[in-house]
Amino acid sequence: MTLVYGPLIGREGSPLGKTYLSVSVQEDGVERALVPGTRIRLQIRKDGVLIARAGCNSLSGAIVLDDGVLRVEPGVQTQMGCGPEFEAQEDWVFEFLLHEPEWAVDGDTFTLTNGRITLVLLDRRLAEPDPPLDGTLWIVESVVRDKNHVEHYAGVVPATLTLNGTLATGSTGSSPFTATVARANDTLTFTDLSITPTNPTGRAAALEQAFLGTLGTPLTYTIESNHLHLRAPTRTAGLNLFTDRPDGYPPRRLLAGQR
């Protein structure tokens, strides 16, 4: 028996430490359509944990890759109600993964098959390149207070941020603003912030205060897929933002349900 686990991290031919997105799903030799705007996403962490998403919910569990067979020990499956079409898709995808499909890696392609269903996936870096920092409409998903405290603002218009060189524009969700942004490597510093006040109340006011307060400190940024993470010098506080992907996934209604 050949264990493809831990020892092959970073080597050619190992899927560990990578994220893959579906580019083809065939059943009995015929292309099987997915729910419009969705893709199957498999994150295979370096610690040997698989996180699978098929439209709305996720399945995670420890894996062992034995002799070309993927074995998943189911751990956690989220249970958001996203509608029958999403639930039906997740049911067959998760069942497929839990019934020990064969796997193969060929360059940037990861293939899973059980003889009837063949799932072909491509490395996320090629299937879904990171969008540029500048010129992208970034939408605030959450405000991070510390590593144990993340605030979501359900039921209010989200704050937005767009960068273009030294100019930052956007909205607090209620009030438009402009600012000057200076850059040093991966750090952004916002100054000369000008806001057109609209005097929001309730949760909208709380979002505006939290958003503007975060922009008042230098922020380091990282981009992964369609997510932008801004972090204060402590690295434990900041903003999580996203932008719509070219394929329109995830549907905005799902994101709204998670905020």
TrEMBL record:
<dbReference type="InterPro" id="IPR053147">
    <property type="entry name" value="Hsp_HslJ-like"/>
</dbReference>
<dbReference type="InterPro" id="IPR005184">
    <property type="entry name" value="DUF306_Meta_HslJ"/>
</dbReference>
<feature type="domain" description="DUF306">
    <location>
        <begin position="132"/>
        <end position="232"/>
    </location>
</feature>
<dbReference type="InterPro" id="IPR038670">
    <property type="entry name" value="HslJ-like_sf"/>
</dbReference>
<feature type="domain" description="DUF306">
    <location>
        <begin position="18"/>
        <end position="116"/>
    </location>
</feature>
<dbReference type="Pfam" id="PF03724">
    <property type="entry name" value="META"/>
</dbReference>
<protein>
    <submittedName>
        <fullName>Heat shock protein HslJ</fullName>
    </submittedName>
</protein>
<keyword id="KW-0346">Stress response</keyword>
